[in-house]
Design goal:
The protein is mostly beta strands and 263 residues long. The chain has 2 helices and 16 strands. The protein has 2 domains: 64 residues, no CATH class; 185 residues, Porin (Beta Barrel).
C-alpha cells in the first residue's frame, strides 16, 4: 500500500474488455470468503484505488459497494479451453493431399442442478491448409450438460458455422456431443458431431446420416486437482480423428493443450 493506492492481487478482478474498471469475482479462489474479509480489511485502511492482478484499476467506493452485495455462492459452473495442431490425410491420398490446421476451442457449462445438469455453450475457430487455405468458425449457443462430482462430464450442443472445404462463405448447422472422464493421471476425451449444409456449394458425395460426420478420441495427460471449491486440470493431449465431409474421408492426428476448471 502506497498512500491511498494498493496492489490487491487476485482478491478481486476488473471486468473483461469494456468494463475493466468494474469489480467482479475472481475465477479461482481457494477460500472466497477469506478473500472477501481480506479485501474489506484493506478498504478499512483507507485505500482509495486498487490495482488488481487482472484488469482495473478499481475505485475503492465501487469495490466496497460490490463487496456489500457479493453473493455468498458463485454458482456451480465449468469452463474448458483447448488449442491444437491437427494434421489430416485424405483416404487413399498421398502426402500431397495432407494438410495441417491450427484451432482453439472454448466450452462453458453454467449451473449444476440436483442431477448434475446445466446449460452448455461454446465456440471454435480453426484455420490452415487442407487442399487450399481454409478456415472454420462454429458457435454453439444451445446445449445441455451433465457433470459428475469427480470432474467428468457429458454435453450436447447445437449451433451454426461458416467456412470449411466447401468455401469461405459455406454454412452449416451442427450438433456436437462431448465427453470427458478423469482416469487417474490422465483424462479421457471423446467428441462427435453431425453437420447439415445450410448454404454454399454442396458436397460431391454422401456422408450417410448427415452431410458431415466427425469423431475424435484421445487422452489428456495430467491429473485433476482440487483447488478450494474447484476441480481443475491442464496438460497436453493427443487425439485421433475421423471426418467424412460429403464422401471425402479424412484421418487426423491432433496434438494440443487443454485446461479446465469446474465448481
Amino acid at each position: 500500500m502506497i498512500g491511498g493506492e494498493a496492489f490487491s492481487g487476485d482478491l478481486v478482478k476488473g471486468g473483461l474488455v469494456v468494463d475493466v474498471e468494474t469489480p467482479s469475482e475472481h475465477l479461482y479462489q481457494t477460500d472466497r470468503l477469506a478473500d472477501h474479509r481480506s479485501l474489506a480489511a484493506l478498504l478499512d485502511r483507507g485505500v482509495t484505488r486498487l490495482y488488481p492482478g487482472h484488469s482495473g484499476p478499481l475505485d475503492a467506493g465501487a469495490v466496497r459497494a460490490w463487496l456489500a452485495g457479493a453473493d455468498p455462492d458463485t454458482g456451480r459452473n465449468a469452463i474448458s479451453i483447448d488449442g491444437d495442431v491437427r494434421g489430416e490425410l485424405r483416404r487413399g491420398g498421398g502426402l500431397g493431399d495432407a494438410g495441417a490446421t491450427l484451432g482453439i476451442r472454448h466450452r462453458i457449462i453454467v449451473g449444476r442442478g440436483a442431477l448434475g445438469a446445466g446449460y452448455a455453450l461454446g465456440a471454435a475457430l480453426r484455420g490452415g491448409y487442407l487442399r487450399g487455405g481454409i478456415y472454420e468458425a462454429d458457435a454453439h449457443p444451445i446445449g445441455v450438460a451433465l457433470r459428475g462430482a469427480a470432474g467428468g462430464f457429458a454435453m450436447a450442443t447445437a449451433g451454426v458455422g461458416l467456412g470449411g472445404i466447401r468455401g469461405n462463405t459455406a454454412s452449416h448447422a451442427v450438433v456436437e456431443l462431448d465427453g470427458e472422464l478423469p482416469a487417474g493421471p490422465v483424462r479421457l476425451i471423446a467428441r462427435a458431431s453431425l453437420g447439415r449444409v445450410l448454404g454454399g456449394p454442396g458436397y460431391p458425395g454422401d456422408a450417410g446420416i448427415a452431410d458431415e460426420l466427425t469423431a475424435q478420441i484421445g487422452v489428456r495427460l495430467g491429473r485433476d486437482h482440487a483447488w478450494g471449491d474447484y476441480r481443475a486440470g491442464r496438460g497436453l493431449y493427443l487425439a485421433l480423428g475421423y471426418r467424412d465431409l460429403g464422401g471425402t474421408e479424412l484421418f487426423g492426428l491432433a496434438l494440443g493443450f487443454e485446461t479446465d476448471a469446474a465448481k
